[in-house]
TrEMBL record:
Keywords: Transferase. InterPro entries: CoA-transferase_III_domain (IPR050483), CoA-Trfase_fam_III (IPR003673), CoA-Trfase_III_dom3_sf (IPR044855), CoA-Trfase_III_dom_1_sf (IPR023606). This is Carnitine dehydratase. SUPFAM superfamilies: CoA-transferase family III (CaiB/BaiF). GO terms for molecular function: CoA-transferase activity. It comes from the Bacteria. PANTHER family: SUCCINATE--HYDROXYMETHYLGLUTARATE COA-TRANSFERASE. Pfam families: CoA_transf_3. The keyword Transferase applies. Gene3D superfamilies: Crotonobetainyl-coa:carnitine coa-transferase, domain 1, formyl-coa transferase, domain 3.
Amino acid sequence: MAGPLQGLKVIELGQVLAGPFAGAIFADLGAEVIKIERLEGGDDGRCMGAEFRHGDALNFHVFNRGKHSVALDLRVSQGLDAFHTLVAEADVLIHNLRPDVPRALGIDAASLGVRYPRLIYGEISAFGHRGPMADRPGYEPLIQAFSGLSSMNGGPDDPPLRAGASLCDQGSGMWLVIGVLSMLHQRGRSGRGGLLQTSLLETALAWAAQKSDAFVNEGRLPLRHRSGHPGFVPYEAFETADGPLLICCGNDRLFAKLAQVLGQEQWLQDARFESNRARLENKQALLAELEPLLHTRSRAKWVESFEAVGVPCAPIHSLPQALATEQVRMQEMLLSVPGEGFSLTGMPLSFDGYRPAIAAAAPRLGEHNSRHGITALAAQASGIRNKKETS
């Protein structure tokens, strides 16, 4: 099945995660993504961990599948000329370079916009395109720390904690793709491209908006709940006889069902517990009664009982446990990488019932130079040679 973005040509100047993730989304959706890399070593993501395949780390394969790799030295005229040849035929250029780098090379949005007015130019920075820190580099944990995002993770007595996933890097890549698709729609009417900007900091602030807007508008600082919720009780993880179970009573109707399963119908006439607002005020009193009850049975037994009446709950799985569940297996998100003998997680999207396949493995450095007409002169300064292509 052809991807919905077939025919779209994207140039990616991506490093490590945010930019490459955006490029991987475009590639999975069927666009031709040409990844331009440094001659020496290429994308730093190639060494982001132990060697997995072809000298590259697994992370590189995750975020660069389905792309072409062109190795160029943009500091020399031959490399820059080759770059312009590629951009002249492209619809979109994306990068997550430090902002001063494109300006120094003369490939910033203002310069390319004059030369290629239909080009959509998307850039991801660390701290945003305005302000005293606009040109600073940044990494995921730095942004989570700076933005206040990590201050919300963990329990009341825990130090600030980084979220386990790269929310800011990957979120920025997603925002960039959303913005590019919006601008493609706009270009269809106006015939002109334009500049699109996002950053890890803006993404972090967007993810934290529920908490920060409460502070700005109501003066409320977020309370820290390891697995709980500031607005509902009970709505967190509890220990059972053999493992943790998350229970989410998001309204009084669900709490009534919980009380009935537990044989505690008297809670429904108790002024301390009869409404969610009352339970918020008397949370510790309720938990003091609830927690011992949950210790009396296995997690599987509680899940069976709660699900039978519609109380939302879930065992807290490890990654291997989650992957082993029938529900996860039925999503068929693990997709084979053509010709490589391993699998990667596909896109969380299906089109007419079909998930986009992984079109090809991550490219080797400079693998597609010859396919895109890059001469040896533009790529031989550091010994890069055009490799025989197999696709």
